[in-house]
Design goal:
Strand content: 35-45%
Number of strands: 6
CATH class: Alpha Beta
CATH topology: Nuclear Transport Factor 2, Chain: A
Radius of gyration: 19 Å
Structural class: alpha+beta
Oligomer: single chain
Strand order of the largest sheet: 2-1-6-5-4-3
Helix content: 25-40%
Shape: globular
Largest sheet: 6 strands, mixed
Number of domains: 1
Amino acid sequence: MKKLLIILFVTGLVHPILFAQNKSEDTEAILKSVLNYIEGWETGDSSRMAGSLHGRLTKHGIVPARSGKGTEMLDASYDEMVKWTTFQKGKLKENEKPESDIRILELGMNIASVTCISKEYIDYLHMVRTEQGWKILNAIWEPNFSGIVESKE
């Protein structure tokens, strides 16, 4: 019985330490995935985009309605995002670098909530750990009407 209590006590202490080490690895992997998403879009690199998205992606854009009243919703799937990314090639001016502010709002064991603000867009992203790494499963976005990328801290 004593051995069992000692084992439970030790594993209870070790597990959070291992989780803390994994958290920094997860943070790095999440940031890389989101960078592949936004920079892939801005540079027209569909392979970077494809690598950042979950195959069951659900993406909604909230944009001003054509009528001038309220908003409209634009939807996109994984296949559409990968296809549309290729149309972005050459849109960045020569020597212009993509700029974005990426924040991990919450990181669980297998899910994360992230914001990504670029000059063009504000994205709220839900991410999931997969066998292939961290992927964007859900996204909601709107145009960045200010065009400003700045740290919110």
